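Dear colleagues,

As part of the handover before I leave the project, I'm documenting each prediction I ran so the next person doesn't have to rerun anything. This entry is a single chain, and its sequence is reproduced below.
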Amino acid sequence: MKTKITLLIALFMGLSVGFAQDQQECMTKLSLMTEAAKAKNYEAAYPHFMDLRRDCPKYNKAIYVYGEKILNDYIDKSTGAKKIGYINDLIKMFDERMANFASISPIGEYQADQCQLKYDNKDVLGLTDQDLYNCFDAAYKADKDNFKNAKSLYVYFKLMVNLYDSGTKTAQNLFDKYDDVSEKIEDETAYNAKKLNELINKEDSGVALTKKEGKYKTFYGAMVDAFDKVQEGVDKELGDRANCENLIPLYQKDYEANKNNAVWLQRAMNKLYQKGCKDDPMFVTIVKQKNTIQPDAGTSYYLYVITGEQKYLDQTMDLETDPFKKAKLYYKAATDFKKNGSYGKARQYYQESLKLNPSNTNPHLQIAAMYASSANSCGDTNFNKRAVFWLAANEAAKAGSAGSKYVTSYNAKAPTKSEIFSQGNAGQSIRIGCWIGRSVTVPSL
């Protein structure tokens, strides 16, 4: 018995020592890989990375973080068969990461990374648009919540457009995918805007942000800008493929089969409105049907568009409780007022949009544009007419970097220093009339 116990202890100790040695080797190789990779000496890092993948795949996520950098460097510096080999190895490494660190390697993120890698190297890999679309589509459907890469969302839709243009996908496929991607972009924009607004409101209340919060503010702002640009890109890709001439017959054909499908009705309403088809009877039919089966802020707004009755616009704002969506509705209404020349009301609604979503600086630019276009009609003298451009510049400046070029343009149209000197009104306040009803201070010399 004592002999058996002794053997068991010896075996256990042997396993423990072996395990400790393995752990030490993993730690040593990880340290060597990390130091070399940080110095961008990827050739030195590569053999340690390959050993770690084979012998210590679950040891530390840094294996895969630095491994991505290492393999991308090898991909960039190689050609032909070797390049293809490294590309395929990086794709394989993403699979390994998802298998070994599943909790911090969501499928939607890393499968999308695989697809993006394939797309970026589609020529050398010999992949078709259909191959690539299938890849992105599988990642999107497998884990939509974590499919958050702005560039990949754009590419995903661009591939759908290519397939539509080649006759592989139908118009309904195209419009459905546009709605899918746009809704995803809106969700990501809303999330980042909410986080950004929390930090903006904290600053506005007089509380200084910590260094970490300052970095988060920059990050969330960059993400909002990125998704805004992606939406612009997606809209540009769709282009005239979705116009009244194409949309109305499609919706007429599919209406009976979908008249009790609230999602279909909502998307059809949105598309017809976006593409300027709101005067067509089909738009009215769809809006009224949606309001019958599922009335909400969206249908109330479109009833306002159809009737022009303020009660529906007021109802819209009462029904919508989500601040981000409500801000978008105020912005949409303001833009309609602006197009119709109702600048005073447009400004009011743009300002309401700003209160709800201060991270969206576009209302400042729209208000500034209205000021600038009203210079001749709202100023009583030549000097005062041009002084309106100071007001426009001040408003554009509130948009931060997005407004910088407009600030320069508006200031160039305002009175010069010599004209201010001739007027003798430096530092004085000028009241601007008509709908603007604001004062602007003449710059000091």
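The beta strands are 429-432, 438-441. The CA atoms of residues 218 and 242 lie 35 Å apart.

All the best with the project,
I.
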